[in-house]
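Weekly puzzle thread! Below is a chain. First person to post its structure in token form gets bragging rights.
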Amino acid sequence: MKNLYLTDQPTVTKFTTGTPGNAVVEGTTVTLTCSANGIPAPSYTIKRQNTPVSNGGKFEISDVRLSEESNTYTCETQNAIGSGPTRQLQITVLGKDQDYLMKVILTINL
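Winning reply:
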């Protein structure tokens, strides 16, 4: 009897801030989360402007500033089979005076 081993190159299934439209209120903390499928289980690299900032599936940004809008974040996955396609994300930063608007958006989406 032969053993059958299934393998699959990783594929990013989600890369998000967890908020609608990846919008975040200035001055708050946000966690970027990357999820992927693959056999064997993939490892993750999150990059900001092509510079690695996390070797896991999560990256936290404290005290978000308007300048974050100019950054592009990328989630890269890899396993023993190879590297999967990357997924990019950009954050929309709402000014502190837009906090009420963000609460309304979150309420509507619940």
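Puzzle host: Confirmed. Bonus trivia for everyone else. The domain at 8-109 is CATH 2.60.40.10 (Immunoglobulin-like).
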